[in-house]
Amino acid sequence: MARRKLMARLRRSNLYTFSHINRAHHQSAQQDIIDFGYPRTIYCNQIFQPFQKRSLIYCGNDISTTKYSVATFLPKALHEQFNRVANIYFLIAAVLSTTPYGPFSPFSAIAPLAFVVGLSMVKELMEDWRRFLQDHKVNMRDADVHIGGGFFGIKPWKEVMVGDVIKVHKDQFFPADLLLLSSVYDDGMCYVETMNLDGETNLKAKRALEATMGLVEDGYFKDFNDAIIRCEDSNSSLYTFVGNIEYDHKVYNLDPNQILLRDSKLRNTDYVYGVVIYTGHETKVMQNSTKSPSKRSRIEKQMDKIIYILFTLLILVSAVSSIEFAYMTKSDMPDWWYLKAPDRNHLYDPDQPVTSGVYHLITALILYGYLIPISLYVSIELVKVLQASFINKDVNMYDYQTLTPAQARTSNLNEELGQVDTILSDKTGTLTCNQMEFLKCSIAGIAYGKRSSEVELAAAKKMAKDLDGNDPDFMSFQVSKSNEVELECVITSNGNENSDDATAIRGFSFEDDRLMNGNWYKEKYADFHLLFFRILAVCHTAIPELNDETGALTYEAESPDEGSFLVAAREFGFEYSRRTHASIFVREMEPSTGETIEREFKLLNLLDFTSKRKRMSVIVRDEEGKIFLLCKGADTIIFDRLSEEGRMFQESTTKHLHDYGDAGLRTLVFAYRKLEEADFNAWNDEFMNAKNNMSNDRDETLERLSDEMEKNLILVGATAVEDKLQKGVPQCIDKLAQAGLKIWVLTGDKMETAINIGFSCSLLRQGMQQICITTNDQDTMQGIKSDIMMQITSGTKMINVEKDPHAAFALIIDGKTLTYALEDEVKHQFLHLAVHCASVICCRVSPKQKALVTRLVKEGTGKTTLAIGDGANDVGMIQEADIGVGISGVEGMQAVMSSDFAIAQFRFLERLLVVHGHWCYKRIAQMICYFFYKNVAFGLTIFYYEACTGFSGSSIYDDWYMILYNVAVTSLPVISLGVFEQDVTSEICLQFPALYQQGPQNLFFGWYRIIGWICNGVYTSLAIFFLNIIAFTYDPFRSDGQTTDMSIVGAGMFTTIVCAVNVQIALALSHFTWIQHILILGSVIVWFVFLVIYGGMPPEYSHSAFHVFVETLAPSPIFWIISVLVVVACNFPYFIHIAFQRSFHPMDHHVIQEMVYYNKHVEDHQMWKRERRKGRRKAKFGFTARVDEKIRQLKHKLHGRPSTLTLDSPQHV
Fold first, then answer.
1. How is this protein situated with respect to the membrane (predicted)?
2. Which of 436, 780, 1026, 1150 could form a disulfide with 560 if both were Cys (CB 3.0 to 4.6 A apart)?
């Protein structure tokens, strides 16, 4: 009984004409391999055969995406840590501290280094452990494997081997790359969703060879052991396959139509059988993946260069110190009898001054090590973790629908978020929901549909805001009511801004009573309306399924467009109910009576859609015996095939198509042709003969015959479908464009789909010149390359000769062409063209091509790239980009697990970059600059003291002072700067997106600013040392005439350093909270409290600091006076600098801060709006650019009118 039901299911072997046929260039490659033999031989189902016939020569099916293994973690992690220049220096210093020549104990040098390196390694281990758990979960999935005797058993994926026969059930993922043997359908068909491979959610039909279609039950595989597969080696091409299978003493050629790829999912098919041909890392999805990289931010790399500079300075001062020490050892030390030279360690030996100088060099390198701050790395790690926690807890990036917060999966790249130049984005699931909504249509030259698209609504709001802002260039014109200029697109959706809530039927957002409830019958040209609805219901390849719970029909369609068409047909009264191998049944509502009648349309043939044909047709016979060809396709294709009498509605339909395109809608044109019986029979005989012919010219013959049939068409109408974007995508893209970011879209979708989405999200717009680069399949490889170079050169010339500053160009390229464009001799010219285009869309790209494009942009431009996606097919580009962002979408968690940051929706990228990226960049940049400043200021005072004391290798400061400097009295304020500093609030960041460009331009960590801070540190060290020495050395320090010793000078000098650097950070801060106040003031207080406590200890612990503050410093007026004077002297130049800059050369955020301080954003709205318009970059994509173009057109019209006009306020309709 079950078998009979299966036999009664859909048979479609005669419907797929062009499905996955090898192209001519691939046939030549196949012939070459056949001539020389296939490199891979697979013995199928050889369970009990010797090893030479098993899959042991091939890799296992377990996968690993981790960066480390148990054996490699320690060496690789240590190598990564000691890529940091400062860590290398401190490692050398730690080793040298174990010698007798170190000025400090070995523990004081080794412990900080071990802590810093160990902390970073633990963090890396935790991040890699999460990857391991994800891999383990995948490797332990269940697979139904033939275990012998016609029985199947459960095995984990990792135990699947090449040659095994696998049974895959509905909605399961394929555990490896399989050759399809048979399916539950008697014609060997099955349906596969490849979302994880190419991002497409539409189903793809696969069909088994006729020779193996009969293997439809488990028991049939008991004797299936004589098949041998010979095929190509594993490669990354998702869309090609070359091989054959020897079965039952016959050889059958294989093509991609029989291949089921790992990580794709079986849909709409109860089960299939397949034999494993590629496993593990040899599968095509893994061939498209890349290894988990080690990423470092640009600031961190530049920080290494600063370390080199400071290390050079350290070597310089150490060399000067050692040379001077060697000279003094030889010339002066014999007179210094109290030193008892030479000592037993030869640290100072007048007879061996060179040796003494070398030993002193070791001492100096460690002593002056405070020039290079080891605590910088610890502080940055802590600050980045706290910054990441703020990102994780940002409620404005929390998705309440899925209860998903933002997640910083690594904290190493926080500041990199503020320096992004180019965003490379996936489309499906990232920009779009892949949910099509039937919105408008044009039938017989009449436009229907009143609801507005998301693009129209966003543009209308933007235009209304711009007009309300009183643009002086625009509002200076006065437009009279009699000569009113109509503002386009200033509309709403029936007053309901939330169109999602207003849509009651998924896939159908149409509103127009003229077509609903059978009212179309009253319209002019009712016969064309009837044909239009029948084309909606009949011209497709979808399969209806009855929902047992609701009793309603659902449709499994090859594309979301088809699904929305069928839903629309049902709502119009033409419900597609069922189909057989030969007929399609539609329930039509009779307009006059309201009754439903099921009509049968016999399916005579189907000419399916391909990216080359850009159209699809069905040939059907209605109940009256009439034969019709029903066709739908791209407007340019259909219009070229219209007959003279079929162009009656072309002009009006073309206008409607232009309006739909401007609204960001996807359009298709419907046409038909009535066929005579004799003409069809003659054509059909020739067509079926060509279809069954397996010669090399089969494709060309089929295409020629299809062209002959799809001519002399009569235009019926057009559809406009909205590909529902993720919430807030147009606004996010617009804001990113205003922030000066470039956006590339890399998608596996067809070119037409990608272009439509480009219009939907305003990456493309009307008036933007499209540069489409494609290839001709018939050309030789050299001819293809030459043709591509010619197209690239032509596009570049087109851009160069364009004089209009508002002109915008979009580059569109498909995956096959991209293969050649990424080769070494072409890729630089391709990149040069791409970076000069406003938008770039790459379609039909494989996961590996996504990664290669990302690498080209990253390395070719030398600027920061960010890749964002939500599927396994996006993992390569996410890992390749400087920053990878994963979206927690419907395509699984592979992208999130490989990403650096994870968000729930694309719209959160705006806040992640424009707010958190801007803040983190400035915080880290200022923090690092300040760190070098304070350490240079402190470290050079030690050198000055050395110079004044004969380079003796001693320090003016107590050892505990030096430890305390970077641990307690200066560390917390700088951490607060890195965590809490804000130049402007988050709201202002979003209102002035151009502020973001401070990061890509590197205004706060350029060499000018870095050297300025280092010079500030040098000046501070000179002021502190010499002012203290002058004040304390010669004059009596206390009222009883006592002078100071070095312990008093050291304590006083350290006090002025602590106060000066803390006042400096207070001047550098723009945003104060109670935390900053406590930490800055508290650091100074902590120093004085420590001095009291430490000085109160017994002399054997406090040494020279015994009662130094209570008895000597505190009672002395000179100490307090000199402390204030030194602090003022140290910070006065910086104060003058910032006052001069704010007054005469203010930066953008300075102006905004002044406006906010004086409440201009509250009291003077016009001024605030004017500054906001100035605070956005001039973009050539985004709906702001679209609105700006419309306003320019209006201005042009107004300039051309001599009469005085007045402009009415835009009305929302």
1. Multi-pass membrane protein
2. 436
Which among 558, 544, 541 has a CA at the least distance from the CA of 201?
A: 558
What distance in Å separates the CA atoms of residue 757 and residue 733, rounded to the nearest whole number? Answer: 13
If you ran DSSP here, which 8-state letter would residue 223 be given? Answer: S
Question: DSSP of 468-522, one letter per residue?
Answer: HTT-HHHHTS---GGGPPPPTT---STT-S-HHHH--BTTB----TTTGGGGGGG
Confidence of residue 345 (pLDDT cuts 50, 70, 90): low
**Gyration radius of the chain over CA positions:** 37
12 annotated among ligand-binding-site residues: no
Burial of 246 (0-12, 13-18, 19+ CB in 10 A): middle
The pLDDT tens digits of the residues spanning 1159-1211 come to 877 777 777 777 776 666 677 777 677 777 777 766 666 665 443 333 233 33
At the second CATH level, the architecture of 376-384+915-1161 is Up-down Bundle (1.20)
Q: How many CA atoms lie within 13 A of 1052 on its CB side?
A: 32
Which pLDDT belongs to residue 1? 38
Question: What span, in angstroms and rounded, lies between the C-alpha atoms of 36 and 30?
Answer: 10
* Domain range 160-288, CATH architecture: Distorted Sandwich (2.70)
Residue 754, exposed/middle/buried by CB under 10 A (0-12, 13-18, 19+)? Answer: buried
Residue 586 three-state SS:
strand
For residues 871 and 199, give the distance between their C-alpha atoms in angstroms, rounded to a whole number. Answer: 7
Q: Is 873 labeled as ligand-binding?
A: yes
1040 is in an annotated binding site: no
Q: Residue ranges of the alpha helices (H) in 965-1073?
A: 971-980, 986-991, 1007-1033, 1046-1068
CA distance 1051 to 1047: 6
Render pLDDT for 622-665 as a digit per residue (tens, 0 to 9).
999 999 999 998 888 899 999 999 999 999 999 998 888 777 78
* Prediction pTM value: 0.72
Enter the tokens of residue 554: 């659902």
CB atoms within 10 A of CB 192: 22
Q: Known binder of ligand: residue 632?
A: yes
Q: What is the mean pLDDT of residues 8-30?
A: 37
Contact in structure between 145 and 153 (CB atoms under 8 Å): yes
Q: How many residues does the chain have?
A: 1213
Query: pLDDT per residue over 370-393, tens digit each?
Result: 777 777 877 888 899 899 999 999
CA distance 835 to 757: 20
Q: Which residue has the higher pLDDT, 1039 or 978?
A: 978
**Which fold would CATH assign to domain 394-433+727-909?**
Rossmann fold (3.40.50)
- In angstroms, what CA-CA distances link 164 with 22, 146, 176, 224, 276? 27, 7, 10, 11, 5
CB neighbour list of residue 939: distance below 8 Å, 6 or more residues apart: 368, 369, 370, 371, 1021
User: Which of 164, 177, 263, 426 does the annotation list as catalytic?
Assistant: 426
With 80 as the cut, is the pLDDT of residue 518 above it? yes
* Residue 399 is a catalytic residue: no
| Cα 1046 from Cα 1033, distance rounded (Å) | 9
CATH architecture of 435-463+505-692+699-722: 3-Layer(aba) Sandwich (3.40)
d(CA 1036, CA 1043): 5
* Helix or strand holding residue 1163 (H, E): helix 1160-1163
Strands of the sheet containing 177-183, edge to edge, are: 151-156, 142-148, 165-169, 271-278, 177-183, 259-260
d(CA 376, CA 496): 54
Burial class (CB in 10 A: 0-12, 13-18, 19+), 465: middle
Q: Which of 153, 272, 278 lies closest to 215, judged by CA?
A: 272
List the domain boundaries for the chain: 160-288, 376-384+915-1161, 394-433+727-909, 435-463+505-692+699-722
Helix-helix angle 971-980:918-948, to 10 degrees: 160
